Amino acid sequence: MPAISQKRAGSKPMGLAARLKKNNIAAGYMFIGLYVIGFFSFVLFPFLYSFYLALTDYDVLTPARWVGVDNFVKMFTADDLFWKSFFVTVKFAVVQVPLKLLVSLLVALALSKATKLTGVYRVVYYMPSIVGGSVAVAMTWKQIWDNSGLVNSALGQLGIPAVRWLSNERTAIYVLILLGVWQFGASMLIFLAGIKNVPSSLHEAAIVDGAGPVKRFFAITLPMITSSIFFNLINGIIGSLQAFNSSYLITSGKPLNSTLYYGLQMYRQAFDHFKMGYASAMAWFMFVIIVALTVAVFRSSSAWVFYQDEGR
Amino acid sequence: MAKSAMKRFFGIFGKNIAAFTVLSLSLCLALLFSSCEGGAPAPAGTSAPASETASQTTASQTEAAQTEASAGADAPESQTEATSAPASATAPAPAQADSDEAASYDGKSIRISWWGNDVRTNMTNEIIDTFVAKYPGLKAEVEYSAFGDYFTKLNTQAAGGQLPDVMQMDYSKIVPFADSGLILNLNAYIDSGRIDLSGVGDTMVSGGLVNGGMYGITTGVNAPCMLYDPQVLEDAGVTLSMAPTWTEVYEVSKAVLAATGIKNAILGIGWENYIDMYARSLGGSLYAPDGKSVGYTAEMLAALWDLQLTAIEEGVAPEPGEYSGEVASIIGNKASWMIDAFTNQLAPYNESNGNMQLAMCEYPVPEGAIRPHTYLKPTMFWSVATTSGLQDLSADFLNYFTNDGTVFDVCGTDRGMPISAAVREYLAPKASEADRQIGEYLDYLADGHSSPIDPPAPAVMSEVYTEYLTVFEQMTYRQYSHDELPGVTQSLIEKMNGILRDAAAAEQ
After folding, report:
1. B180 and A168 in contact by Cβ < 8 A?
2. Shortest CA distance from B148: residue in chain A
3. Does this complex have an ipTM over 0.90?
4. For the domain A72-304, what is the CATH code?
5. Of chain A residues 52-91, which have a CB less than 8 A from chain B?
6. Do B328 and B432 fall within a single domain?
């Protein structure tokens, strides 16, 4: 505000209301006002407050007690479940992110060809992503992979004995990964847009030069959509490291903590054990990991991401 | 073009646009701050009686007690007499509140929360409707959830100073809530007779005492028990005693499995009450009285787990993950012929298992038990928030629930056997088969087959139990041999004791 009044110092004196009206400033502030208030109160304040909490012992019922870095020390040195959940999440991310990229890219390629039913297919394939995060889908997924669920019934028809997918330490995490991969719709749409943006002149020139579809995919389409891959990669990494729903709803971390996501362990510390400080410390550790990974991917991007407008 | 459109749009605010912006922004900020300061008590409504206004402060206990004393003094003296002589034909009813006082609740709303299933929720809604109907203009806001989510919600509300006026409270939580000054010491209301406990035995309500103050009125009495399908035993040609040993349960389970193919789930479950009862029968407990260690030995745990591991290996107990349905209907689903419960769950369990008539016995114990292990437990409590603006009315609700027979016409023994002798007498002639069965079991326990309940578990119990379950699960997945169990249980107990000691140290 002062900066604005200084700029106008030379002009003839005006009432505050008139000045605001003339510059449409008030309207501008009003448009962003709600968002700014929301940002400060629901994003920035909790964000900073959680850092304070991470350095305290806080059980909600009694006031927070300052403990310094005790939470972090305990986390790194004396908490098996912290590391267990961390590595479960890393495994989940390492398997799910590339798999989901691959599947969404393949589906996008298939749907990029214009046919009469393309529109229908796009809707159908996008559907799981709209409903995928919901509780209902998780419960359905649980039913499908249950001991006497759809999958085992189907296997039974083929004479294959039933597998306890969700209570077998080796299979449970993959059931959850599959659910994540199945929700490929959003990244598929971005790939689809990227593919549509590849200038057809490039393909036409390549066809004239005698390049087949496979050659054209690797030499033209793939390099041209690296920016979409980049975007989906970052989103995928962040999303999978923050995963919570599927484990909480389907397996509750079982069996033998093989599906104990970091997010679920954090939730348990906060809302089962009421160790808000400890949970905040866990959140901040994951925040640092995510920032580091994101920075690393961004740094690497100059080596492999191509922008048609040279990034300008 | 766009600019002129905007101008036209904002023209409606005219010159007042700045004032409007400032006003709306400050309104938002005011809202924000008021919600941030939820920890402080909300300002009292002007029409609330003076005594209520005063007792809202979460001040020191002595101060609170004084204010409550003055609140209690307002209550009419005649209330104590009204309930003393119930006629068996009509429902016992607490004295009605004065009409002038009733009028003062016009436009007010009492918030009541509980955990439980749909059946309980419907019944509770019905009795609350009856309660608020006595006060013209009074409304009720009800909040309910499953037990698993209930205290997550309640703790969050407590942190925000937004606890409901009346809340269902658990034995394991009443101490931390009372110690944190979140729930009201009800002594003054009891002394004045506003909450009438004249027909209630002291042992019935002692569970609600924290440091000499009554912080919750017991809703009823129940006891842990085992429920089983008697038909299955008949088919197998075996019987089970009222207080079986683990060995007996194991042998009977083997016979049942051979005859019917039905397993026994309790042999494969790591529920902490099993080791609690095991230890209690040998003079121990789940947690040591000082809360700094567990109250059982590695030998006890290893012996119990050894038997359970054998049961899993031999297929008498289900494999981990073998049954994925609801525990409440495990017997009806033929996945187990026995399951642990509390007495007040008998009727719902009967229903969940296809209207079966389940039989009841005590938890299994080891050989050589030296004392009765089962205890009578306050099923749950009703507590009143210190931040409540309707404490007198809340006390009236507690009195209503305790002494009004019509409450139990609706709710039955869902929250345990009623604590008021008059209400129990009133209900006796219309008791259902399940109620009669529960009554018999509780009488049996009271007749020398029970010992006093242990103090509530320390607050850190959920963490300790997580450790317990983690190792137990590993055991059920056969990651340990029988020979390894003594070492495994020893290191588990050391780890749990470490958590308990750390928590106790942090509290000081």
Report:
1. no
2. A272
3. no
4. 1.10.3720.10
5. 57, 59-62, 65, 81
6. no
